[in-house]
Amino acid sequence: MKTSVLIIGGGLAGLTAARFLHQAGIGFHLLEARDRLGGRILSTDAAGEVSDDGFDLGPSWFWPGMQSAMNYLVGELGLRYFPQHSDGDIVFQRMHSQTPERFQGIRQVPESMRLHGGIGAIVSVLAAALPKDNIQLGSRVTHATLNEAGAEVCFVNAEGMTQRIEATYVLFALPPRLLEATVEFSPALDAATARNWRDTPTWMAPHAKFFALYDRPFWREAGLSGTAQSMVGPLSEIHDATTASGKAALFGFVGILIRQREKVGRDAIIEASIQQLAQLFGPEAGRPHATLYKDWASDSLTATADDGEAGGHPIPRGLASVPGKWNNRIWLAGSEAGRRDAGYLAGAVEAAEYAVMQIMNKVEAAS
Fold first, then answer.
1. Which Gene3D superfamilies does the entry mention (predicted)?
2. d(Cα 296, Cα 302) in Å, to the nearest integer?
3. Helices (H), the chain
4. What percentage of the chain has pLDDT greater than the value 90?
5. Contact indicator for 143, 183 with CB cutoff of 8 Å
6. Which among 308, 282, 309 has a CA at the least distance from the CA of 222?
7. What is the DSSP letter of 202?
8. CA distance 348 to 72
9. How far apart are CA 186 and CA 149, in angstroms?
10. Nearest by Cα to 222 from 92, 89, 83
11. CB pairs under 8 A, 24+ apart, for 318-327?
């Protein structure tokens, strides 16, 4: 199989890149290791299945006034957004032995915005506009070999068979750390590039999110915003996760470090989280009709062993272009390669735009 541009990764960056290439009339093929598109974007229903009106187990927010690339894409796709609910008081939990305290809430500036249907709505709209035959799920890339015409990429498909595809240009739309750990390059990357990729923290990889789903957002009736901060845990930061369609929920970031989460276990964390919500928001919070839990550190298509030590938020590191022998043949376009908003949804859009622009310049020069 041959293609002009091979995109590896079907998250926001990969799909945005595919959209730009398709609009420009440049042939592409997209390989995604998961059995779904979206990558770290995951919006599900109460049963944990991907949904067009879901709860965001991955990223939840963006900031239109600060992130022009993301704002433009959302507007161009005709998606609607709404502000994160923040009306009402916040709750602060200092110690086990103390009653949680209630304080007047402060409106966030700039406001965090959420998409109608969940962040997964952008994945659905992008994918619907692309030719289905150009997208291949369940395809895990293992090797890339440089040749005179471009690169030959080896991958294992959904049936476990090894396949190869030749491409003039390759766009890697996945975390640099994951790429360095899982794909072998021939010729090998130079040591500085490999180290740079390995040292780049992966957005979402350290996090685990817990959701408690209810019949109605009862905390609002009590004058609470649904926002809470805790020094006790297991949830350290809690927010109202009620959808635009009115499905009520609270969600929290698990404040337990990765290694400790592995020891404690999923079930114990879920039970302790429910008990904590009851302490913060009253007995009704202790009776959710469903819960959702996603630990991104245990997702092998997001995190590597290096993420077990956590780390800071990704910062712009000039990762888009790859030096050495692979220069002008491969580009990085995951969120971490964003030139301004690395580690955010906007970073993925920025990185995709930049990489595709470089490829289009090469295609134009060659023609």
1. 3.90.660.10, FAD/NAD(P)-binding domain (3.50.50.60)
2. 7
3. 12-24, 68-76, 120-128, 176-182, 191-198, 218-221, 258-264, 266-281, 345-366
4. 90
5. yes
6. 282
7. P
8. 13
9. 14
10. 89
11. 319/176, 319/196, 319/197, 319/200, 320/351, 320/354, 320/355, 320/358, 321/358, 322/189, 322/193, 323/190, 323/192, 323/193, 324/189, 324/190, 324/193, 325/146, 325/187, 326/146, 326/185, 326/187, 326/189
Length of the chain: 367
Q: Supply the pTM of this predicted model.
A: 0.96
Q: What b-and-e string marks burial along 28-58, b requiring 16 or more CB atoms within 10 Å of the CB?
A: bbbbbbbeebbbbbbbbbbebebbebbbbbb
Question: Is the separation of the CB atoms in 224 and 281 below 8 Å?
Answer: yes
Residue 297 backbone class (left: φ over 0; alpha: ψ -120 to 50; beta: rest): alpha
Write out the H or E segment, with its range, that includes residue 89: strand 89-93
Q: Cβ(270)–Cβ(210) under 8 Å? A: yes
Give the number of other CB atoms < 10 A from CB of residue 343: 22
CB 179, CB 173: distance < 8 Å: no
60-98 pLDDT, tens digit each: 999 999 999 999 999 999 999 999 999 999 999 998 878
3-state secondary structure (DSSP) of residue 194: helix
